[in-house]
Design goal:
Elements lengths: L1 H14 L1 H4 L9 H6 L5 H28 L5 H24 L6 H27 L7 H23 L1
Helix pairs in contact: 1-7, 4-5, 4-7, 5-6, 6-7
Length: about 160
């Protein structure tokens, strides 16, 4: 039940305060509307496209990390994978997910969102490694936490800039 509650709250936060003005009897707006099929078709496709880009970027990041971590220090391997997947992610997010062109304004916003996200990644990676998770499994736990945070930050950048 807690996971469902968090799902509703994340989507409400992403949509912004204007959506909360018209929330339903449970206090949820976008998530409730999404589940009941009341949001616009384009927004639903946007969420799907964001997921596709996220899966591709995450797979690229992990693949680069997995190959490099056998030869170089794990933080450097992780950072290299992050930077290369970041470049692909930005281009795909702008052109495919939100059907906009890359610009200085959304580029700075996207970079700022990913700087916060990167710091979260590195901190979590080192915590999970310290807790004893293997080099192969630790990034998967990081992704489970950091990807929803990244969704909130990036959607805000492209919708409010």
């Amino acid at each position: 039940m807690f996971i469902v509650y968090c799902f509703f709250r994340i989507f409400d936060f992403v949509e912004g305060p204007h959506a909360r003005k018209s929330s339903n009897k449970f206090g949820f707006s976008l998530a409730y509307s999404y589940l009941c099929g009341m949001i616009q078709k384009e927004t639903a496709f946007e969420i799907v496209r964001f997921g596709i880009v996220g899966v591709l970027s995450t797979a690229l990041h992990y693949a680069i990390y997995w190959v490099l971590q056998h030869w170089i220090e794990v933080n450097i391997a992780y950072t290299t994978g992050y930077v290369l997947s970041f470049l692909v992610n930005y281009w795909l997010t702008a052109h495919f997910t939100f059907h906009t062109s890359a610009s200085v304004k959304n580029g700075f916003g996207f970079s700022g969102a990913h700087l916060v996200n990167y710091l979260l990644h590195i901190v979590l990676l080192n915590i999970f490694l310290w807790l004893g998770l293997s080099n192969e499994v630790a990034p998967l736990c990081v992704f489970a936490i950091a990807i929803p945070v990244n969704f909130i930050l990036v959607r805000f950048v492209f919708k409010h800039t």
